Amino acid sequence: MAEPFIYRRIVDFAETDMAGIAHFSNYFRWMEAAESALLREVGVPLTASDGVTDYGWPRVRASCSYHEPVRYSDELEVQLHLKTIKVKALEYVAKFYVGQGDERRHVATGKMTSVYVCKPTAGGPMQSLALTPAMLERLAPLAEEVLT
């Protein structure tokens, strides 16, 4: 099994409600931030443009199961697993943890699918694209499964 990509941050006050508990929508932001950091680290652009065509990775599916609350100032660790590389898409599983050592707790599990697409810069519909050989070369070592 491939090692997960680790993304760490402190939960900000603005991400919580009056009780200091993180709002559920932030888990999706944190998954996306982890994905962005992973792609940046391996040299795969999250967005690109050649002036005629824009390229990117919209999310086409996302879910999250919450096991216990995350609170203001918690040290949050997102373990992002690149579960599957498909011809045109990446499937991720994100495991969220807070605490350290014996106090570490698994607080949520998310899933997300991103599809590689292009669209005309001047406007028009998006079209899915096959991942490039360079993308596959950089991402394959991180994946649990590659279906091409």
* Portion in strands: 35-45%
Question: Could you please say which CATH topology applies here?
Answer: Thiol Ester Dehydrase, Chain A
**Rg calculated over all Cα atoms:** 17 Å
Measured between the Cα atoms of the first and last residue, the distance is 18 Å
Helix-strand string: EHEEEEEEEEHE
**Structural domain count:** 1
Could you name the CATH class? Alpha Beta
Q: Helix tally?
A: 2
Structural class, from secondary structure content? alpha+beta
Which regions contain 5 or more consecutive residues with pLDDT less than 50?
none
Give a count of the beta strands, DSSP E runs of length 2 or more.
10
Principal-axis shape: globular
Mean pLDDT: 96
The CATH H-level homologous superfamily? Hotdog Thioesterase
Largest sheet: 6 strands, mixed
Helix content: 10-25%
CATH architecture: Roll
Produce a short descriptive summary:
The chain is α+β, with helices and mostly antiparallel strands and 148 residues long. Helix content is 16%, strand content 43%.
Provide a descriptive summary of the structure in words.
There is one protein chain. The chain has 148 residues and is of the alpha+beta class. The chain has one domain (5-146): Thiol Ester Dehydrase, Chain A. The chain is 16% helix and 43% strand. It has two helices and ten strands, in the order βαββββββββαβ. The strands form two sheets. Strands 1, 4, 5, 6, 7 and 10 form a six-stranded mixed sheet that branches. A four-stranded antiparallel sheet has the order 2-3-8-9, with no helix packed on it. It starts with a strand and ends with a strand.
